[in-house]
Amino acid sequence: MINLERRNLLGAGLVAAGATAISQPTRSFEVTTGDPSDADFWSNIAHEYELDGRYTVLNGGGNNPIPRSVVAAQTRYLRLAASQPRPFNYQLLAYQERHRTRLSKLFGCDIEELALTRNTTEGLNTVAQGLTWKPGDEVLISSFEDAYALRAFQPIAERFGITLTRAEIPLAPSREQVLSAFSEKMSSRTRLLVASHIVDAWGFVLPVRELAELAHDQGAQLLVDGALSFGHIPVDMRSIGCDYYATSLHKWLNAPLGTGALFVRKDRISELWPLYGVRNDRDDVRKYESIGTRDGAAVAAIGQAIDFYEHIGPKRKAARLRWLLEFLISELKGARGIEVITEVDEDRRAGLARIVVEGWSGTDLTRALREQFGFYVFGNFPGPKDGVYVSPNVFNDRADLARFREALITLSKA
Questions:
Q1: H or E element in which residue 129 lies
Q2: Residues 6 or more apart in contact with residue 367 via CB below 8 angstroms
Q3: Where are the domains of the chain?
């Protein structure tokens, strides 16, 4: 394996740091408490991002900005790989094993249950295409999964004659409503339940642990879309008890684009086929990583993203994101023509919500907020409550959200 700590890069005197070396932030933020309201701590965290100065980004639920330390690491690794892709790109990919060990601790799973993929979509499709289906098998899927997970299973339904059944979940559902929606639709043919951990564009946190128990009691399995949860809230596969959990590392973990992870429970690996032909053993989780050539620099820089996340701390980050959202909710309370929709259970609430402004479509509201006020949000999921979804990140503060409130109030009067 390359000694990345010593190699001189392209004769320019640039030394590439090791892919697993701790990435120290440019400012010290270990001396303060890091409580959700600790302005000094979070100001120093925000300094670790080099953001597009034209906008205030409130779209943490999308592809997040990447910290300086991760960008710097990926740049060093890319230059190294570009100097001679073979062997350097492939030796950078060898750091997957170290990342797997570190990520498995954050996932709360065995290292032999975690594959490093490219994104959540790849993980969802691995499960959809990897299970052995028979005509008449049923997939019971949450009504919130139309944009992503449902699409992974539609071709399977057409190819193999399986049935896709929707569990109709109301807006802002209680735990009991979610479980009832699934249990009422389950049958002897149900093989797989599919649900998001945090629902995209809404912020509802579904009771995935109870859904896993419900599935297993009926002889079925559970696939969780964790695109918006890992790196946002602490997760633990042993506690959740699901069979499969797909996520993207380039979202809330702030790793390079095109990095993700797939958890497959150990006793499910041998029966779940990989997407491609591989040389790995049937019970080796690495078979899901055999996709041909991939970007070694992006994979190697996952280590710096883990460093940054661990510097903040999973619980501390989750508390900050929730604190910011709670502030916005309080600021908008009583505002005429404005509605905030998010997880109703405050004990489970995360840091994402949908904002509805009377008289505005989500698309038009997104454009107005960006062009008139410089806020970057997302409104591409129309529905019964059309609006934009807002997810503050660790580089945001109360001042950002106070200005956002004023922009919304101005537009509500337009």
A1: helix 120-130
A2: none
A3: 92-301, 315-412
* pLDDT tens digit sequence for 268-289: 999 999 999 988 899 999 999 9
Instruction: Supply the pTM of this predicted model.
Output: 0.93
CA–CA separation, 20 and 24 (whole Å): 12
Give dist(CA 54, CA 25) in Å, integer.
24
Beta bridge partners of 330: none
Provide the pLDDT for residue 376. 96
Tell me the C-alpha distance between 87 and 118, whole Å: 21
Radius of gyration over every alpha carbon of the chain, rounded to an integer in angstroms: 22
What is the CATH T-level fold of the domain 92-301, as seen in this structure? Aspartate Aminotransferase; domain 2 (3.40.640)
The pLDDT score that the predictor gives to residue 61 is 80
- How many Å is the maximal CA-CA distance in the chain? 66
> How far apart are the C-alpha atoms of 164 and 137, rounded to whole Å?
9
CA dist 15 and 6 (Å) reads 6
- CATH class of the domain comprising 315-412: alpha beta
Q: What are phi and psi of 248, to 5 degrees?
A: -115, 130
Helices assigned H by DSSP within 249-384: 296-300, 302-312, 314-332, 362-373
CA angle 83, 85, 90 (to 5 degrees): 130
